[in-house]
Each structure stands twice: as C-alpha cells, then as structure tokens.
Design brief:
The chain is an alpha/beta fold. Helix content is about 50%, strand content about 15%. It is built from nine helices and nine strands. Helix 6 links the parallel strand 7 and strand 8. Helix 1 runs parallel beside helix 2, helix 1 crosses helix 7 and helix 4 packs parallel to helix 5. The protein starts with a strand and ends with a helix. The structure holds NADP nicotinamide-adenine-dinucleotide phosphate (NAP). The site of NADP nicotinamide-adenine-dinucleotide phosphate has 31 residues, from helix 1, strand 2 and helix 6.
C-alpha cells in the first residue's frame, strides 16, 4: 500500500495507540483522535519524533454529532487519505433496565454512527486513489449476544456486518475494508468499565501489538474481511458459529446469574 495519511480514532491508548505506532513506523503521516487533549498532544509529539512523520492531534468526542461533523469535514478535505481506523470504543457492564441511558446512547453513536459517517467521508478520497482502506475495530463479542453486555455485542455485530457489506460494495475498486475482531486484549478497556467484574482465562489474553500486527498483515494481503487475531480466538469464533443461538442464550443466562 502506498503511504499517505492514516486517521486513527481512539489513538491515545490500547489498540488505537498501537495502530498509530505501527502505521507511523511504516511511514504514514497520522491524524490522531481522542478526547483527552493533553494525552493526545503528548502521543502526537512522541510519534512524530520517533518515526519522523507528520502527526496532527484532532481532539474530539466522537459520541457527539458536532465533533463527528468536524472530523467528517477534515477527512473530506484530505486527498492524501490512505487509511481510516475506526477504533474508539468502550464497554459497560450491567442490566439495561438499570443502565445510564446517556452512556448507552453514547455507545451507539460512537460504535455505529461515527464509524459509518467517517467511512462515508473517507470513501471519495480512497476511491480516487484506487488504494487504501477502512479498518473498523469490532470484537469477538459481535458474534454472540450477552446478558449484561447487550448494546456492546449489538453495536459490534453492526460494525462487522457493515464492514462485510461495504467490502462487497467496494470489490474491484482497490479499496479494502476490514472488521477487526479481537478477543480479550490487554489495554485500558477493561479497567475503564464499572460494574461486576467477570474473570477471563489468562491464556486467552492478547497483546495490542500482536492484534494490530495481524490486522495490518491481513489488510496488506487483501483479506480476510473479518479478521480475528490469534489461533485460539479463531477456534472460539468457529465454535460460536457452529453453536445454536439457543445454547448461547443458555450459557449467557447461567454466567450472568453468577456475576
Ligand atoms: N481490549 C479488549 O479486550 C477489546 C476486545 C475487542 C475489541 N475491543 C475494541 O477495541 C477498541 C479499542 O479499545 P481498547 O481496548 O484499545 O480501549 P482503551 O485502551 O480504553 O482505549 C480507548 C481509546 O479510545 C478513546 N476514546 C474513548 N471514547 C472516545 C470518544 N467518545 N471519542 C473519541 N475517542 C474516544 C480513548 O481516549 P479518550 O478517553 O481520551 O477519548 C482511548 O484513546 C474498542 O472499539 C473496543 O471495543 C477491545
């Protein structure tokens, strides 16, 4: 892929920070997005000096329509745009009946509306280049449904299906689309959540570095569209795909009643 501008949302921590790192190392100029201005400025400065690329910090809360509009306008004015990584996201725990509705609405805007609007804004420049791509950071959670995690699974299922449809639409144009579906990854994501803590087996955890390296390798090789890092997680996804939905319901009801 020829180098150009790479836009990464949620670029100050975890998977997004690692995308910024590995894309900077490949020689991409970067436009980085997150809410915390100070942390964003420090990230931009550190990446510019370690990789010798141009890095622009774009502070924005992508759960707000007006901030997404500002970024849409910035993308529309970027003919050098080569890659959009829709990564910013968060999780919640707890029953919908007791949930903070504003936070749930913010999740739907951040995981669904913002990536769709940003992809739409990026496409004209990508199609003109006949190159580059869009990576939507989804999750293994998008293959299941889960009590205590209702909207997280549903929004990630949207991102995966959206990516598969868009990839089909763009077939033959040179523009690639990926739904990156990691399992548990060591980032700030789990610590940022409040609510009952679930225990996850240690052997299933991935590093952000390996997740991002696999994602970029898949994109550069031209597929697959649904990219699941880690052999163990690919087995998990295969098992989920072979499991009746009624059994997934039984498992999640049992697990949630124990939390
Ligand atoms: N970690 C996992 O186990 C895991 C597994 C599967 C999928 N994922 C997905 O991977 C993506 C990245 O997660 P992560 O684990 O790297 O999380 P993380 O370490 O918590 O990082 C989240 C990043 O997103 C930014 N962000 C959060 N809300 C934002 C908003 N409203 N507007 C703009 N930026 C925002 C944060 O910066 P500010 O707070 O400064 O805005 C931060 O840079 C998410 O979409 C998540 O669903 C994670």
């Amino acid at each position: 892929m020829s180098r150009g501008l790479a836009v990464v949302t949620g670029a100050t921590a975890g998977i997004g920070r690692e995308f910024a790192e590995q894309l900077g190392a490949r020689g991409h100029d970067l436009l980085l997005v997150a809410r915390d201005r100070q942390r964003l400025a420090a990230t931009a400065e550190s990446l510019a000096s370690s990789h010798g690329v141009e890095v622009e910090a774009f502070p924005a809360d992508l759960s707000r329509d007006d901030d997404v509009t500002r970024l849409v306008e910035r993308l529309a004015a970027s003919p050098r745009l080569a890659l959009l990584v829709n990564n910013a996201g968060f999780g919640t725990r707890g029953r919908l009946a007791e949930a903070d509705i504003e936070l749930q609405e913010a999740m739907l805007r951040l995981h669904v509306l913002a990536p769709m609007r940003l992809a739409r804004a990026a496409l004209p420049a990508l199609l003109a280049r006949r190159d580059g791509g869009v990576i939507n950071v989804s999750s293994v959670a998008g293959f299941i449904f889960s009590a205590g995690n209702v909207n997280y699974c549903a929004t990630k299922a949207y991102l995966t299906t959206f990516s598969e449809g868009l990839a089909a639409e763009l077939d033959g144009t040179g523009v690639r689309v990926q739904a990156l579906c990691p399992g548990f990854t060591r980032t700030e994501f789990h610590a940022r959540m409040t609510g009952p803590v679930e225990r996850h087996p240690r052997f299933l955890w991935l590093s952000a570095r390996s997740v991002v390296a696999y994602s970029l390798q898949c994109l550069e090789r031209g597929g697959p569209v649904v990219c699941v890092p880690g052999f163990r997680w690919r087995l998990v996804v295969l098992a989920i795909r072979l499991t009746p939905r009624s059994l997934i319901g039984w498992v999640t009801r049992r697990q949630y009643s124990r939390v």
